[in-house]
Each structure stands twice: as C-alpha cells, then as structure tokens.
Amino acid sequence: MEKNLSDFRSWLENNPKNYSSNSIQAYVADLTVFSRYLSKENKKLEAKAPQPVFEEFISAEIKNGRNYTTLRRRIASLRRYVEFLSTKKNVGQVDYKQLVEMIKNLYKEQSSEEVLTQKEIGKIYAYLRDENSPFHKRDDCIFRLLLESGSSIQRILNIELDDLDLAKNEVKLSNDLGEEYILALEPETADCLKVYIEEVRANVAMSSELTPLFISQQARRISRQAVWQNLKKLGKLTGMESRLNARVIKNTAVKRILEQDLDIEQIRLMLGHKNALSTYA
What we know:
mainly alpha
C-alpha cells in the first residue's frame, strides 16, 4: 500500500481544494495507521466492498483506546482516501454515518465538557423570537453565528456587511490566525440575517458608509462588552444565568462542528488551529 500512500499524497497536493500541508500530513498519517493495521491483520482493502474492513479498523482503534476526536479524523481520512481511489477504479459505497455511529457512545463517555443542550438552545431561540425589541433579532443572529462558527464574539463583530452573501447563504470570516474562510450558513441563520438587515439595521444605519454588519442603537459597531451584557441578561431571563457563558457557548459550538461531516481543513480553519493533527487531538 506504500505506493498508494505516495500517490494519495500527490493527489492531495494537487487537489483543487488546495489542502494545506498540515491537512495533508494529517490525512497521510491516518492512512499510514490504516495501512499498518491491514498489514498486521493480514487483511486487504477490497475496493468493491470497503465497508467491512473499515468497520473492523474502527473497532480495532476503539479497542486501542483512541479518543472520539481522533476516530472522527480517521473516518474523515478514510473518506478522502476513497475519493482518491475513485479516480482510479470503481469503489463500493461506504456508509460513513455507520462508522460515526460506532463511536457515538465513546463520545458521550469521553465528553466531560459542559455544553448547551438542544432544548436549551431552542429555549434561547424562542425567547429571542418572541420578544418585541427589534434588536433581539440582531442578538439572535449573533448567537446563531457563535454556535455555527465556533468563533469568538469579537470575530463575529468584525464581520462587515460586504462579507455577507445571502444569495449564496455564505459569510466570510477570519480565525485567530488571521486566515480567512467561507462559512456556509444554516438556512434559519440566513433568514435571520436577512430580516435583521432589512428590518432593523436599515432603520438605524442612516449612512451607507456604515460598514459593520452588527451595529448598536447608536448606529456604530456594537462592542464585545455590550454583547456579553446582552447574553448575561438573556441567561437570567431564560433561567440559564450560570450556563450562558463564553466557555459553554464555545464548547457547544465545537461539539456541533465536530459532529458535522466537514473536511479536516475546514474544521482547522474554523477552530483556528495551526496544525490539522491538533484539530482532532
């Protein structure tokens, strides 16, 4: 499989997705582990039916004590490898959801970080939706972006109006390393932003020269301190005063991001990691 690994690296290096060197390193490292597993167990990867050996490999990795995030990276790397093989031969269908299902219980066992439940998130959305204040729509959009992007509040507040493309449901963000990337918005978030811009921001921003996406009632970029005051007040009003804080929101965002079927490089960019290997460490 060594020749395949070399070809796999070359394919990644010349891929239109422009994988970073760190992401390539992560993919190749995971496939090297898979290759060693095949050799040790005297198994072969049957291109027409890869699912069984993939499941056996993941099971072996669970027994070897790999943590949830490492296993998620392994699965993502197997997906990339199948894409590579598909350029050379017909490859059987792989049920990646089944592979993820195999490690879900492991995530529950290993996840000790405090996160917001879906019920709590729904309660916050419901409160913001039902309140009459127009600026609750702004706060709703900010909260949604925090959960979808994993970004800090300041990064969200740095978004300019021109960074938003509602025709494509996308927004341009930058991480803590200063790297820019495109975040695909959930439909509900895109709708929220559209209403905020048309019904709230347009009535406050009297000048087209006002470029920040999120503005205060005084028609200037809203401050990080103001957002935290609003979140603290929101936590008190919804009975989650001790829960709605920076750490819990960040943990919740990271959990949601890792549960999505995203490319390693996209996750690395979103979380602002220098090395893709540390993204799932």
